[in-house]
């Protein structure tokens, strides 16, 4: 059966379609199938990485990262080590960016500046350099928007990426209704020209996060990111030179665990999109499909029709739109009509054939793993995959791909902009969901578990909050030998006691440039600042403490004959920043943190009623 490329469109029915049809050129197209393996199925008991990923990591770690460690740590004397002793034994590091709409994208961008060696202030603070020693970067939903913007734009420094020219996120133009109703009509008209071609799925995101859109051409009919493919990251110069961590974006599907289907953290499957494949390392799936041909109808990995392989399905806007497709649901929670939800879905990358409220947050992709793992994979018989927002199962930080044992990751730095508390701060929920999944679903179903567990964390969100852990960075698993060390960087109020702007509600879809700058700055200052108990001052040792944590696992990788003890300086850091169940901290040690959002209370120009008037106009 050939994949369905046509999308029924309420939108084109009520918007005039202009004469320029060039965007249609960006639709997926058919080609003769090459003689390759389209699908990689591997044993659930011995999972294997894509060979292209393995060689990327090994080249980055042998040719690029060693020098970056030296640049970051110097000779090591500032933290009590000799960096040269760790050569060939450096830990494998990953950074993860949570979901949370525009809030998460902007928070994540500010954090990236703080860990980027290209930012001189960050280097001086000691935090700038972490990004350059990382082997992996994962993103989900709003974090996937950030990831897409980075990887589709040659991995630029984020200050320029967000507010400069490459590409410039144009957040002052609303995501849903840019420039008010009249301008919005032009915007939708431009978009509608390519909607028939499927190129428009996710195009509202493409306008903001991909190359080619600025304030001057926002409303014209140039391609605005259409035609930019996720698989094209493979050919980008920065990627060929291994200049960036290997990117992974997560997406969920309904799965089955212990007899239940869907809706809980345990019964959803987690998928990942890399530049090479769409894959799931969940034990019941354990397979991946070549991303370049991902729209192709396959059965047991073989094209159903060898003359009609699909290319061009993996539009970047569509990939990041699929990872974030809960967003229309969040926006429409006020009770939108089906037609209105469909407009949102089209714009945000979640096209569905038949719309009902129940599938409001589903993106349908042809199922490339049809016929694979028939006894365990619930969608093995299905020609389509119903893909859900990467955070649907509550794991709002994309930990899952980073816990895959075959990836051998030693340190995970997790940026969390979840909206858990009433004031839109994270409270550890995402970590708790991941612990639950990693300790049950990913372990019980296998004789030989293929995923690492998270280290010990507090038992409840109340504990996270009362211990003040969500107000400052914390290291988890400092002494554990069988889990990665996790560095949690929660979105938190300014340590200085200033009024916060980084906790905007998920529904906010417009930000003035000066607001975005304040958000970047606040996320940045906290990430280079650490904390000093009972003060509102940054910790002058924090940057070096972060270095201590990121390099610590090198000690356990050294040959046993040459042990290196944790240095005195790093031991002091660990006393302050490690979660220690036998010496608990308190939120009282973090005085004067303001929790209430200080941004404009009603800047969101989006409302269901204004959308209704647009739809009926
Ligand atoms: C470092 O990043 C911050 C926050 O994004 C930005 O304000 C500053 O201009 C950057 N500094 C340099 C030297 O790039
Ligand atoms: C962005 O678009 C401009 C103008 O088309 C082009 O010159 C530039 O190379 C593009 N950058 C990337 C990273 O694709
Ligand atoms: C699986 O189901 C059994 C029986 O219903 C139950 O006792 C067990 O707790 C379940 N396991 C998980 C991890 O939910
Ligand atoms: C997932 O499963 C739940 C519970 O069975 C169901 O309500 C929902 O419609 C399913 N979603 C998809 C996309 O299949
Ligand atoms: C296979 O695909 C080709 C090219 O799209 C098409 O012409 C042909 O009819 C297809 N064959 C079958 C059996 O569907
Ligand atoms: C941004 O500028 C507007 C005026 O142009 C001002 O009202 C608003 O307070 C500023 N926002 C921030 C966060 O500085
Ligand atoms: C490491 O610490 C242990 C226990 O304090 C000590 O016995 C040992 O000599 C130290 N090793 C090195 C290499 O300093
Ligand atoms: C780690 O081990 C050291 C030395 O045994 C101990 O002093 C410290 O309290 C432990 N830290 C945590 C977080 O368990
Ligand atoms: C407990 O932690 C505090 C910092 O939060 C530290 O000052 C104190 O020394 C620690 N006590 C022990 C026994 O490690």
Do you know the CATH topology? Cytosolic phospholipase A2 catalytic domain
Cα-based radius of gyration, to the nearest Å: 23 Å
End-to-end Cα distance = 38 Å
Strand order of the largest sheet: 2-10-9-8-5-4-3-16-18-17
Biggest sheet details:
10 strands, mixed
Fourth CATH level, the homologous superfamily = Cytosolic phospholipase A2 catalytic domain
Give the total of domains.
1
Organism: Collybiopsis luxurians FD-317 M1
Signal peptide: 1-20
EC number: 3.1.1.5
InterPro entries: Acyl_Trfase/lysoPLipase (IPR016035), LysoPLipase_cat_dom (IPR002642)
Description of the structure:
This protein has 617 residues and is α+β, with helices and mostly antiparallel strands. It has one domain (3-616): Cytosolic phospholipase A2 catalytic domain (3-Layer(aba) Sandwich), CATH 3.40.1090.10. 31% of the residues lie in helices and 12% in strands. The protein has 21 helices and 18 strands. It has helices at residues 10-14, 51-73, 101-115, 120-125, 142-151, 158-163, 180-195, 203-209, 237-240, 316-323, 327-331, 338-348, 400-403, 429-439, 441-444, 461-466, 513-529, 542-551, 554-557, 568-577, 608-616; strands spanning 29-31, 39-41, 93-97, 134-139, 246-254, 256-257, 260-261, 268-273, 277-280, 287-290, 298-299, 302-303, 309-311, 363-366, 384-387, 411-416, 474-476, 485-490. The strands form 5 sheets. It has a 10-stranded mixed beta sheet with strand order 2-10-9-8-5-4-3-16-18-17. The protein has a two-stranded antiparallel sheet with strand order 1-13. It has a two-stranded antiparallel sheet with strand order 6-7. Strand 9 and strand 10 (287-290) form a beta hairpin. Helix 3 (101-115) packs across helix 5 and helix 18 (542-551) packs across helix 20 (568-577). Mean pLDDT is 85; it is low at 1-22, 194-201, 350-360 and 603-617. Residues 575-576, 583, 585 line the site of one 2-acetamido-2-deoxy-beta-D-glucopyranose (NAG).
């Amino acid at each position: 059966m050939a994949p369905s490329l046509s999308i029924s469109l309420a939108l084109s029915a009520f918007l005039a379609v202009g004469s320029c049809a060039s965007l249609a050129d960006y639709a997926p197209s058919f080609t003769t199938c090459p003689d390759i393996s389209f699908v990689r199925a591997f044993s659930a008991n011995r999972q294997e990485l894509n060979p292209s990923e393995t060689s990327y990591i090994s080249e980055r770690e042998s040719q690029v990262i060693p020098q970056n460690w030296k640049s970051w740590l110097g000779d090591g004397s500032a933290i009590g080590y000799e960096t040269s002793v760790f050569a060939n034994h450096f830990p494998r590091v990953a950074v993860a960016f949570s979901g949370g709409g525009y809030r998460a994208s902007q928070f994540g961008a500010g954090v990236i500046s703080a860990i980027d060696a290209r930012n001189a202030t960050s280097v001086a603070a000691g935090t700038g350099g972490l990004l350059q020693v990382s082997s992996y970067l994962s993103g989900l939903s709003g974090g996937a928007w950030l990831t897409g913007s980075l990887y589709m734009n040659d991995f630029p420094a984020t200050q320029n990426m967000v507010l400069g020219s490459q590409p410039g996120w144009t957040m002052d133009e609303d995501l849903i209704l840019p420039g008010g109703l009249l301008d919005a009509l032009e915007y939708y008209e431009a978009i509608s020209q390519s909607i028939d071609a499927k190129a428009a799925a996710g195009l509202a995101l493409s306008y903001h996060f991909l190359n080619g859109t600025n304030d001057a051409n926002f409303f014209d009919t140039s391609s605005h990111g259409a035609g930019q493919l996720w698989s094209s990251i493979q050919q980008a110069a920065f990627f060929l030179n291994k200049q960036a961590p290997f990117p992974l974006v997560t997406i969920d599907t309904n799965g089955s665990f212990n007899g239940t289907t869907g809706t809980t953290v345990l019964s959803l499957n987690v998928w990942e999109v890399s530049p090479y494949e769409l894959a799931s390392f969940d034990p019941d799936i354990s397979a991946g499909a070549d991303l370049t041909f991902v729209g192709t109808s396959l059965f047991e990995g073989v094209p159903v029709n060898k003359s009609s392989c699909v290319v061009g399905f993996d539009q970047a806007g569509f990939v990041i739109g699929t990872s974030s497709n809960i967003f229309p649901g969040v926006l429409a929670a006020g009770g939108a009509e089906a037609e209105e939800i469909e407009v949102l879905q089209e714009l945000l990358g979640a096209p569905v054939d038949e719309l009902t409220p129940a599938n409001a947050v589903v993106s349908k992709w042809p199922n490339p793993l049809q016929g694979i793992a028939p006894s365990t994979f619930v969608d093995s018989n299905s020609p389509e995959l119903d893909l859900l927002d990467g955070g649907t199962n509550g794991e709002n930080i994309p930990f899952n791909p980073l816990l895959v044992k075959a990836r051998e990751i030693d340190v995970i730095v997790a940026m969390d902009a979840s909206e858990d508390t009433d004031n839109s701060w994270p409270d550890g929920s995402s970590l708790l969901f991941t612990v639950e999944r990693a300790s049950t679903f990913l372990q019980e179903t296998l004789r030989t578990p293929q995923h690492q567990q998270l280290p010990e964390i507090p038992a409840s969100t109340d504990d996270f909050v009362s211990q003040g852990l969500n107000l400052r960075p914390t290291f988890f698993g400092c002494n554990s030998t069988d889990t990665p060390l996790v560095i949690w960087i929660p979105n938190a109020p300014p340590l200085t006691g200033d009024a916060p702007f980084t906790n905007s509600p998920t529904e906010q879809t417009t930000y003035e440039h000066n607001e975005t700058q304040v958000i970047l700055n606040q996320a940045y200052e906290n990430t280079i600042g650490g904390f000093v108990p009972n003060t509102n001052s940054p910790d002058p040792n924090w940057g070096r403490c972060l270095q201590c944590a990121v390099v610590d696992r090198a000690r356990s990788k050294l040959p046993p004959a040459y042990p290196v003890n944790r240095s005195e300086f790093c031991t002091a850091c660990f006393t302050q920043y490690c979660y220690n169940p036998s010496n608990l901290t308190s939120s009282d040690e973090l005085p004067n943190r303001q929790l209430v959002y200080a941004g404009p209370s009603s800047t969101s120009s989006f409302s269901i009623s204004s959308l209704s008037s647009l739809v009926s106009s």
